[in-house]
Amino acid sequence: MATRADHDRVVRFVARHRFPFPGQADWPADNVTLTNETTRQRGIPTPEGLHYPDIVVVARGGALREVAEVETSLGEDTAKIWAWGSAAADDKTRTGVRHFFVYVPEGQADLARQLLERHAISHAGLRTWRIDADGQIHIVPVLTTGDAKDHVESVGRE
Predict the structure, then answer these.
(1) Can you tell me the distance from the alpha carbon of 127 to that of 141, in angstroms, rounded to the nearest whole number?
(2) Sheet strand arrangement including 64-70
(3) What are the mean pLDDT values of the chain's consecutive 10-residue runs (158 residues total)?
(4) Which domains does the chain possess?
(5) CB under 8 Å to 126, separation ≥6 — which residues?
(6) Which of 6, 38, 34, 18 is nearest to 102 (CA)?
């Protein structure tokens, strides 16, 4: 079972190495990537109050662009949180889906895909994550419905 420390390491790694990817030339110059894993920096309004997604990408003027959630376990309540994140993200992808990304522990991709489909949650990508015995973090794309350029694996340390 993944720990809170594992979760936070993965959040920081994903934020640093995927928002934007190293060398990504088409990343808008005004994008700022924020994480909420240790300090709440940017929340999104929901019917149940403010929710703080793991990762948010905002324009310097404050407009929310992208949202990502890193999970350690999945359940029906997870889909509610994902729906909030999806609704808050923009739809400026090549395919028109929301700029919303889900990262789940390795082995949970099928359950995550079922939750996304059953609850009709618009998303740009589903990825798995794991931390190997050497402490390296592995991000593996499972499904990319947004921009094909996002379907790349990332491996490294936070």
Answers:
(1) 4
(2) 31-35, 55-59, 64-70, 100-105, 125-131, 137-144, 154-156
(3) 92 96 88 95 95 96 94 94 97 94 97 97 97 97 91 91
(4) 4-22+29-156 (3.10.640)
(5) 101, 102, 104, 109, 112, 113, 116, 141, 142, 143, 144
(6) 18
